[in-house]
TrEMBL record:
Catalytic activity of the protein: 3-O-[beta-D-GlcA-(1->3)-beta-D-Gal-(1->3)-beta-D-Gal-(1->4)-beta-D-2-O-P-Xyl]-L-seryl-[protein] + H2O = 3-O-(beta-D-GlcA-(1->3)-beta-D-Gal-(1->3)-beta-D-Gal-(1->4)-beta-D-Xyl)-L-seryl-[protein] + phosphate
Pfam families in the record: His_Phos_2
Protein name per the record: 2-phosphoxylose phosphatase 1
Single annotated GO MF: hydrolase activity
Superkingdom assignment: Eukaryota
Record function comment: Responsible for the 2-O-dephosphorylation of xylose in the glycosaminoglycan-protein linkage region of proteoglycans thereby regulating the amount of mature glycosaminoglycan (GAG) chains. Sulfated glycosaminoglycans (GAGs), including heparan sulfate and chondroitin sulfate, are synthesized on the so-called common GAG-protein linkage region (GlcUAbeta1-3Galbeta1-3Galbeta1-4Xylbeta1-O-Ser) of core proteins, which is formed by the stepwise addition of monosaccharide residues by the respective specific glycosyltransferases.
Family: Belongs to the histidine acid phosphatase family.
Region listing for Disordered, in residue ranges: 24-44
Predominant subcellular localization, coarse grouping: Golgi
Gene: PXYLP1
Length: 471
């Protein structure tokens, strides 16, 4: 949602005289099944872009447990390792609409309040025992769960905790109960846990982990700190990636200038809150408005009038158009190939060690942001995938063929949907091979070579691609 590069990590919440959509009943005929769709479906979805429908998908309001395709494989395949990338759950806005009252949302956890999860009370109790947990600095200074009666900026909400408790429980049912990925006496070195230094990502990771491994031993849990939202570790310096990003931001700016309805809407909203249009736009009001929308809180009013649903629809529609043009212009794709390479390279390294029979890091969890998942989705060629909703999950599964133990395959799943054969490295596989899964070597070749080929130029490795002259 939001302007792609600024990320939804920078948004706001609206209020209006009318109450918004009740959170208990999905609108637009959205069933729990359609709620999780990641690719547009011409049969079940509105024939024209519906900003309210897209916003509801983005909110990802917890409802009935979703059906998912994780863990599906022919019976002679054995699950070897799982690599999970998540966006943090629902959060309070990062921006305030100038001169308006902040939305009143309670960020304490209350076990019998909606949204409810049967493990919420036990989660709160377990987190309260983790104050001595040993995490990589500066994570050890962060609270382990949200706890403010009025949410602080960017703080995870109860909705966000429940979203990831659900994710964790779903993955537990599939990967532990069904596939026995970890032994009952699992050890600390069989997990790899990494998060950025925001409380919302650490807390989201802990909520998912608690759903996955209830009442885990705190001594076995160690979260590493990742300073970059791209999870690029020691490979973050990449001038060409930054040039792609600057050109992409310029494209966004020019598209906004062409949208007279958007400018008119910002002007109307600026009059309502009595600030210059430029100041209102800089406050990224959609972030706050999405918060109001997802929490069914009225958009703000002043003596000059109310921000309303029509304003919200115009800004949301522009976001959707921006994403469409972004796919066509390919600048973001270039940024994504370089932005996602370090974390994908790290992932295939972990997979290759697992194929050698190593038993460390069988379950990897990266607790991250929309600006982490988006480049990975784009780099993989999943151009039609929806923008990462709150608590989105992207999963890489590694499988071994028991009938041919030297052969390993991968599956890629986004919010429970198998998108393996939508990826650029495996979209033609089923035309050439009867094998039901994508060979691991396809992914390895993609990361080691094809990502650089897709960038053009003569670079055949990350360093050369990042320092290409004359881009």
């Amino acid at each position: 949602m939001r302007y792609f590069i600024k990320s939804m990590e920078h948004s706001v919440c609206p209020s209006s005289a009318v109450h918004l959509i009740p959170v208990s009943t999905p609108k637009n005929g959205m069933s729990s099944k359609s709620r999780k769709r990641i690719m547009p479906d011409p049969v079940t979805e509105p024939p024209v872009t519906d900003p309210v429908y897209e916003a509801l998908l983005y909110c990802n309001i917890p409802s009935v447990a979703e059906r998912s395709m994780e863990g599906h494989a022919p019976h002679h395949f054995k699950l070897v390792s799982v690599h999970v990338f998540i966006r943090h759950g629902d959060r309070y806005p990062l921006y305030v609409i100038p001169k308006t009252k902040r939305p009143e949302i309670d960020c304490t956890l209350v076990a019998n309040r909606k949204p409810y999860h049967p493990k919420l009370e036990a989660f709160i109790s377990h987190m309260s025992k983790g104050s001595g947990a040993s995490f990589e600095s500066p994570l050890n200074s962060l609270p382990l769960y949200p706890n403010h009666p009025l949410c602080e900026m960017g703080e995870l909400t109860q909705t966000g905790v429940v979203q990831h408790l659900q994710n964790g429980q779903l993955l537990r049912d599939i990967y532990l109960k069904k596939h026995k990925l970890l032994p009952n006496d699992w050890s600390a070195d069989q997990l790899y846990l990494e998060t950025t230094g925001k409380s919302r990502t650490l807390q989201s990771g802990l909520a998912l982990l608690y759903g996955f491994l209830p009442d885990f031993d705190w001594k076995k849990i160690y979260f590493r700190h990742q300073p970059s939202a791209l999870f690029c570790s020691g490979s973050c310096y990449c001038p060409v990636r930054n040039q792609y990003l600057e050109k992409e931001q310029r494209r966004q700016y020019l598209l906004r200038l062409k949208n007279s309805q958007l400018e008119k809407t910002y002007g109307e909203m600026a009059k309502i809150v009595d600030v210059p249009t430029k100041q209102l736009r800089a406050a990224n009001p959609i972030d706050s408005m999405l918060c109001h929308f997802c929490h069914n809180v009225s958009f703000p009013c002043t003596r000059n009038g109310c921000v309303d649903m029509e304003h919200f629809k115009v800004i949301k529609t522009h976001q959707i158009e921006d994403e469409r043009e972004r796919r066509e212009k390919k600048l973001y794709f270039g940024y994504s190939l370089l932005g996602a390479h370090p974390i994908l390279n790290q992932t295939i390294g972990r997979m290759q060690r697992a194929t050698e029979g190593r038993k460390e890091e069988l379950f990897a969890l990266y607790s991250a942001h929309d600006v982490t998942l988006s480049p990975v989705l784009s780099a993989l060629g999943l151009s039609e995938a929806r923008f990462p909703r709150f608590a989105a999950r992207l999963i890489f599964e590694l499988w071994q063929d028991r009938e041919k133990p030297s052969e390993h395959s991968v599956r890629i799943l986004y919010n429970g949907v198998d998108v393996t054969f939508h990826t650029s490295f495996c979209q033609d596989h089923h035309k050439r091979s009867p094998k039901p899964m994508c060979p691991l070597e396809n992914l390895v070749r993609f990361v080691k070579r094809d990502m650089f080929v897709a960038l053009g130029g003569s670079g055949t490795n990350y360093y050369d691609a990042c320092h290409r002259e004359g881009f």
